[in-house]
Amino acid sequence: MLYPQIKTNYNDFIKTEDGHKIYYEESGNANGYPVIYCHGGPGGGSSPFVRRLFDPEYYRIIQFDQRGCGLSEPFMSLHNNTTAHLINDIELLRKQLSISKMLLAGGSWGTTLALLYGQQYPQHVAAFLLRGIFLARQQDLFWLYSSHGAARLFSDYYRDFNPHPCDDPEQLINTYYRRLTSDNELDKLSAARNWCQWESRISVLHADHTKIEEDLNPHHALAMALLESHYFSHSSFIKENQIIANIDKIKDIPATIIHGRYDSVCDFSQADLLNQSWPASALICVGSAGHSLKEKAISEAFCKASNSMAVFLKGQKSKL
Prior knowledge:
The protein is an alpha/beta fold and 320 residues long.
């Protein structure tokens, strides 16, 4: 189902006015329909795997690394690193690449960012393609970090993450955040590994120890743990339930939502609520998958949806 691996056409950096350099890359058809993909985390990064999800003959495939992670500079910087800044970076990228309308795609935290950008700049989004919905509400953090959510399914893994029962995920997140911003390099690395191991272990139906070790690579783990704890300790720098409260701003923009039935990182109810609140959306429930994009059933569903979206976008263009 996936397209063959392809190289980038080019890559570059965009300099922001506040001292960040945002890495971006383009692949596929340079004259094709633009799709901007927002990676997860916060703290993830662009990936060659994402290029395989879009028809390279039709799409102009654009990825970027959010502030503080991937190849963006300064690495692991928290300075001016908020959701509002990330939204502004997408808009800066859109202008830099002379894009008037785009397909806006993303996974996990990338869906949060894509939805928030779309609600601020709906005129520039033709459609959404979203996988693994994360609404970034307090109850979603409670599900992921308390002992009463995903921990009920993975109690042994949760003990490695947090040995003590937790009714207050805010306190747990803040504890990790203090460790990850301390001057103790060994404890910082230990905290990063524990943080990322928890999420990696529960992101798939069947744990892949090779992938878990990749996720625990210090370069990746330190950025992911630091930026996630930074954002989540600040309620993702958005108002509670902001996405659903502002859904009317994008209510007429078509969207395909893909979510694993057994997603333990972002429980299925988030995708279901978004779909029920959004008249122009369609929800694809992948019955044999969890959260990870690299699960075969998820990546194939995403690729199939991107092909269907290409047909839709071609039809829209022909009406103009």
